[in-house]
Every structure is written in structure tokens, then in C-alpha cells.
Amino acid sequence: MLSPTALRRWSWTHKWSSLVCTVFMLLLCLTGLPLIFHHEIGHLLGTEVEAPALPAEQARRTASIDAIMAAAQARFPERVVQFMSQSDDDPRVWFATLTPTPAPTDDFKSIAVDGRTAQVLSDRPVNEGFMWTMLKLHVDLFAGLPGKLFLGLMGLLLLVAIVTGVVLYAPFMRKLAFGDVRRGRSRRIQWLDLHNLLGIATLVWAFVVGATGMVNTWADLMVKYWQYDKLSALLAPYQGQATVPVAERAPLARLHAAAQREAPDMKLSFIAFPGTAFSSPHHTTFFLRGTTPLTARLLQPVLVDARTAEVTAAPHLPWYLTALLVSQPLHFGDYGGMPMKILWALLDIATLIVLGSGLYLWLVRGSPAQAARAGEGQA
């Protein structure tokens, strides 16, 4: 049993960690709800790119990867291709990201190309509209890396609030049945009981989503550290060399074949071209992934010399990037199809009620801890 002094300390920590992060957690839960169903909403809004139906003979064809890249490049010839990838939902659709220079930037064009005919399916801007706004608010509050790190701090405070709430739940429920909501009491008491009940019911989910969300906010820093700590040693022989010009690069299909030979049991996730954030000025880097539900989230980079098509290195990702890759789909419930998405949405709504009721209890009583002690005394 907690002593009165310890109870006050835990109560103070729970109150202020909750209050500081609540408004931002409400925002993240609200914006996260449509993001759980981003593919389905995209289909309804007509913003999701879909491969058209083709005659059987055409549908069986596969365009060369070089033709797919050329089709995307032809739409914006003044730009460079930074990345290419196949759609996770439909491998017949390829996406290419084109930017003014290889350097990281928010000025990009996303081109969707049919992998069977090498015809451009869409060059519609993806950095606008309802879902883009929801994503930016959820990821960085339109503030870039500082916004991500700030939300990461709010996620840490959420974890503190969850842990302290669990510690306080036992003494509060000492004289009550587990999960009891005292309907004959005042509205404040009923909201207090509902707050505690939903808080315990969503405990594991809220902790997992809060922890994975916090890890995701560190993604940019993790990648930069990996580049500094691991890639810099591998690329030391190429230090100071200029980015390999497009005209001097080997055919992309040849580069891809070399990478695939290095990991024949894996399939392509995305390609980072020379000079971009995930490659080097001298290499085209192929990120390959496994074929099982779990390994499909884990990436194996293969660095291929852009001129000679020789594999330079295939380093395994460090544990912190592996943790990041596993946490990203878990955060949005992308592992189990529609049933898991529905479960994630219901738990998100329950968490919204927990956050809102906690804010309400503080506004009407001044302190959730005081309300808890008052509720215990009335039991």
C-alpha cells in the first residue's frame, strides 16, 4: 500500500503529465482515426491510385523497370528521381518521387506508373487535401523535425501518465468492485468511474500505440545516426566524389538484378537513387524485404555501384532501425487487415473518451487525484 506521501507524489505526477499532453493526445487520436483507414478513405475520395483493367494479354505483361522510370521522368524532365517503389496494396502500380535535386526536400512530385504498360496513371499532388492535412498534423504539426520531437515528448508524457494511473488505480478501487460505474452518484463520480474503467481497458493498447508513436518521431534522427555510424565507413572509399550523372549509370534493371542476386529470397521494397538521403552519391541502394507478414516489415539494404552494377555492401540494419520498422505498422494497426483496423479504431475512440473525461474531471474539480480520493471516500 502506498503511503500518503507516496500517493501525493504519484498523484502529482499523474495529474501534470496528463494535463500537459492531453490536448496534443486528443489531436493525435482525432487525426489518427482517419489515418487507420487511409486506403479505404482514399478509394471513397477518389485519390487512391488503382491499376485499370486491361485485356488478358496486356494484363500478363510486365514493363521493364527502366521503362517505368523513364515514363515518370518524362512527366517532369527537369527533376531527378529520388525514390521508386511498388505499391504495397497493388504491385502493378509503381510510384516515383521526383524532386529538383537529390537532397531531402518537401518540394516533390509523386508519379504513379502502370507496371504492365509503363503508362503514367497519376501525377496528382499528394501534399494536399484532407488526408494529407491529417497526416501532417499527426506526424509533425506542420513543423518538421522540431514538431516530431515535440510530439515525441508528448508521447513520453503519455507513457508516464499511463504508468502513474495504473499505480493509482489499485488504492482507488480498494473499496469498489473492479470496473464498477456508480450510476446512482453524481455525474462527476460517474465520469470518474468511466475514466478509470476505460483507462484500464485500453491500458495495453494505449501504451503500445504511445510507445510506437514516440519511436516513430525519432525516425529522422535514427536514419541520420545510421548513416553516420555505419554507412560512412562503408562509403569511405567514395568520399568526396560527385553524384554519378544519370548518363553514366548502368541500366536500372541490371542494378536491380545485382541486388536481387544478393538476397534472392527477398523482394523489392523501394529504390534510393544516388545522392539521396538513403543512399550515397556513388550508389543506387535497393531496400529489399521479406515475404512473410513479419519479415515484410524488415528491410535489407543492398548498395550497388551505380556505374558498374557491382554490389558494394549489404549491411544488416541495426536494432534501432529494426525496432522503428516494426513499430510503424503496429502504430496504425496495419498487421491484421480490416478486423485489426476496426479494433484499433474502437480503442482509439475509447482513448478519446479517457482523455476527454480526464480533462473534464480536472476542470470541474481541479485535480483527478482529489477526485479519486473523494470518490473512494464516497464508496
- 3D shape: elongated
Order of helices and strands: HHHHEEEEHHHHHHEEEEHHH
Structural class: alpha+beta
Whole-angstrom Rg: 25 Å
Q: Order of strands in the sheet with the most strands?
A: 4-3-2-1-5-6-7-8
Largest sheet: 8 strands, antiparallel
> What is the percent of helical residues?
40-55%
Q: Give the rounded overall mean pLDDT.
A: 87
Describe the protein:
This protein is of the alpha+beta class. It contains 13 helices and 8 strands. It has helices at 4-36, 38-45, 56-59, 65-75, 130-139, 144-172, 187-201, 203-217, 219-234, 252-262, 319-332, 337-365, 368-378; strands at 80-86, 93-99, 109-114, 120-122, 267-272, 283-289, 299-305, 311-313. An 8-stranded antiparallel sheet has the order 4-3-2-1-5-6-7-8. Strand 1 and strand 2 form a beta hairpin. Helix 1 runs antiparallel to helix 5 (130-139), helix 1 packs across helix 6 (144-172) and helix 7 runs antiparallel to helix 12. The two termini are 18 Å apart. The model is unreliable at 366-372 and 374-379 (pLDDT under 50).
SSE topology sketch:
Layout: H1 4-36, H2 38-45, H3 56-59, H4 65-75, E1 80-86, E2 93-99, E3 109-114, E4 120-122, H5 130-139, H6 144-172, H7 187-201, H8 203-217, H9 219-234, H10 252-262, E5 267-272, E6 283-289, E7 299-305, E8 311-313, H11 319-332, H12 337-365, H13 368-378
Antiparallel strand pairs: 1-2, 1-5, 2-3, 3-4, 5-6, 6-7, 7-8
Helix pairs in contact: 1-5, 1-6, 1-12, 6-8, 7-12, 8-11
Tags for this entry?
single chain; 13 helices; 379 residues; 12% strand; alpha+beta
